Amino acid sequence: MRYKLRRGQSWGIRFLSALLLCIALVFRSFGPACTLAQQKPQQNERPSATLIEMRDLVAKHVRLVREGRLEELRQLFTPRLREFITEELLKETGPRLAQARVEELVGEIRQLEKGGRHLVVVRSANGRLLTVFVWHHGRWLADTLWFR
To answer: For residue 12, is pLDDT > 60?
Structure first.
């Protein structure tokens, strides 16, 4: 059975109309699923932290202390501690951190929520408290001057 075109119609218009209809149906059915998968976590969702991520963060702290990059290091601490990070402190602690291994510094972590704040408690390999990281504006910031 052949389809007859009406006067003034062409196969191109019919084909394009059918194609656009199919595309619209596909986006309508898969569109919401795609957009949900691409959304960032909500502010009230619990951020995740792994031992490897915390070791990387402490390694970054150690590297910045060794290199004496004061301003970059300050940005990795909570605002209340930033004024206490000085050039003298970096000069004093730099040589001591030269011998430190990150695997010994960060032995275990524990993630918790306290007072509506997301925290990661970091303990060294010997079980002593190293620092506490706080989730602040989408990133982990140290809440103690652990390298002092």
So the answer is: yes
CATH number of 51-142: 3.10.450
Domain boundaries, the chain: 10-38, 51-142
Local structure of 19: helix, strand or coil: helix
More confident: 66 or 29: 66
Global confidence as pTM: 0.68
Asked if 143 contacts 131 with a C-beta cutoff of 8 angstroms, the reply is yes
Q: Which positions ≥6 away from 111 have C-beta within 8 Å?
A: 46, 48, 49, 118, 119, 120, 121
Provide the 3-class DSSP secondary structure of residue 130.
Answer: strand
At 35 the pLDDT is 46
| 140 bridge partner residues | 135
